[in-house]
Design a protein that fits this description.
3 strands; Uracil-DNA Glycosylase, subunit E; 3-stranded mixed beta sheet
């Protein structure tokens, strides 16, 4: 994630920033599909073992998935992001909290989506703080 998408995400971080030791960014695919299109199922499947290995090493407490592609790939569902976001999903020993991709927020700048994304980030922060103290 770069440029405006990254800036949009930085603006939405809850008040206490995470340190680099507390946060890790990874992608469901390890190379950008041509034309910046969404990855095909076989591309996601080819990269899944690498993502699983990363997560196994990192052992995250909370996973914040950005957008429908990442969320659907991680949860193994076709359910739309609008129905998945706003709640906690079990994911191994971690929990997964879906939210909108920053690019979606840039294309849909209205206050409704920003508010929902902010609520998702606050949920992820609360859950992280709760699990961090265990």
């Amino acid at each position: 994630m770069r440029g405006a998408d990254h800036d949009r995400l930085r603006l939405r971080q809850p008040t206490r920033r995470l340190t680099r030791d507390e946060a890790y960014i990874c992608n469901t695919v390890k190379c950008r599909p041509p034309g910046n299109r969404n990855p095909e199922p076989d591309e996601l499947a080819a990269c899944a073992p690498f993502l699983a290995a990363q997560l196994a090493v990192i052992q995250p407490k909370v996973i914040l998935s950005l957008g429908s592609v990442a969320t659907q790939a991680l949860l193994g569902t076709k359910e739309p992001i609008g129905k998945l976001r706003g709640r906690i999903h079990p994911y191994g020993s971690a929990v997964l909290i879906p939210t909108f991709h920053p690019a979606f927020l840039l294309r849909n700048p209205g206050p409704e989506y920003r508010r929902m994304a902010w609520e998702d980030l606050k949920l992820a922060k609360r859950e992280y703080d709760r699990r961090r103290t265990k």
